[in-house]
Amino acid sequence: MTALKNDRFLRALLKQPVDVTPVWMMRQAGRYLPEYRASRAQAGDFMSLCMNPEFACEVTMQPLDRYPQLDAAILFSDILTIPDAMGQGLYFETGEGPRFKKVVSTLADIEALPIPDPHKDLGYVMDAVSTIRRELSGRVPLIGFSGSPWTLATYMVEGGSSKDFRKTKAMLYDNPQAMHLLLDKLAQSVTSYLNGQIMAGAQAVQIFDTWGGNLSAAAYQEFSLAYMKKIVNGLIREHDGRKVPVILFTKNGGLWLESIADAGADALGLDWTCDIGNARARVGDKVALQGNMDPTVLYAKPEAIRTEVGRILASYGKGSGHVFNLGHGITPEVDPEHAGAFLRAVHELSAQYHE
């Protein structure tokens, strides 16, 4: 594989020295970019974009071509590819978000679920990873990703997104045996899926635990974090002669940072409800931190964005181990010029912390 020209993202995740704080954005290939909207219209719909490796590569590269400050590319895909490969029938309704033709509601439903083969059942994702990696030609590292078992389970049991997770939580408390079987199957599936991405060329991986923060403290440990630990323990951690860093991101997980830091990953993603300096004091040198600007700051003027970037950098302080990111995905209504101002500010203001 081609040597990396810019590896500061990987170095920061491993707490090695860098010249400036590396930065990327969750959902950096997305609807805020006019070029993305044009590609999506050409593909026909979102899933056609995801399932075509050439289109997935095209939209992955778009933010990098627009913003030379980006220090990483992230695979363009969806977290719900695994449930779809398990036969749940993923589709998207306008204004409704993701939906499934089949839902999981009984132990028998769960017992019938297959564990997907990443190369046979999700080969289009592996092809996208290898295509993107080839196109990047060592420009920046490529991030692979998956949803966490708990987050995937919520969609499979609810049949789509949910405000209160009533069906999923009812199963958790009424029938913990069934929920544990579902989560175990999903943990096996995520492990083989991420390892497939690593073998295809992903140089770091992130697990998105979008809905773990909706659990109680005890339920989070048992039904979310325990399965992410299982995945981390099963991942390929070195490939192509380099370490493959692992990032865990639990939205609204700030109460449990110490437990997440003990899960074996290299870095924790933080949402914007945490103070990053406080988080650094709590986890020490155990892990790197990624985050954590409120995405809605990007609606403000560039001067205000720059001020907030400076505040977060100062809160983290001197030294490596910080990957700058938003606390969640960039939203469709953001002006692309504001995103550019954000990225430039990170590099311009962070050099003083890496002398």
CATH first level: which class? Alpha Beta
Indicate how many domains the architecture comprises: 1
Describe the largest sheet.
7 strands, parallel
User: Which CATH architecture would you pick?
Assistant: Alpha-Beta Barrel
Strand elements, count: 11
* Shape call: globular
Beta fraction: 5-15%
Structural class: alpha/beta
What are the low-pLDDT stretches, counting only 5+ consecutive residues below 50?
A: none
Cα Rg: 19 Å
Tell me roughly what share of residues is in helical segments. Answer: 40-55%
Q: How far is it from the N-terminal to the C-terminal residue, by CA? A: 31 Å
Which whole number gives the mean pLDDT? 96
Number of helices: 15
What is the third-level CATH name, the topology?
TIM Barrel
Write a concise synopsis of the structure shown.
The chain has 355 residues and is α/β, with parallel strands linked by helices.
Summarize the structure in words:
GO terms for molecular function: uroporphyrinogen decarboxylase activity. It holds the Pfam family URO-D. It is an enzyme of class 4 (lyase). Residues 22-31, 143-159 form the Uroporphyrinogen decarboxylase (URO-D) domain. It is found in: Cytoplasm. The strands form 3 sheets. A 7-stranded parallel sheet has the order 1-4-5-8-9-10-11. It has 15 helices and 11 strands. It has 355 residues and is an alpha/beta fold. It has helices spanning 8-13, 34-43, 46-51, 53-66, 81-88, 107-111, 123-136, 149-158, 166-174, 176-200, 217-234, 257-261, 276-283, 302-316, 336-350, and strands at 73-74, 90-93, 97-100, 142-147, 204-209, 238-239, 242-243, 246-250, 267-269, 288-293, 322-326. The chain has a single domain (8-354), classed as TIM Barrel, CATH 3.20.20. The two termini are 31 Å apart. β8 (246-250), α12 (257-261) and β9 form a beta-alpha-beta unit.
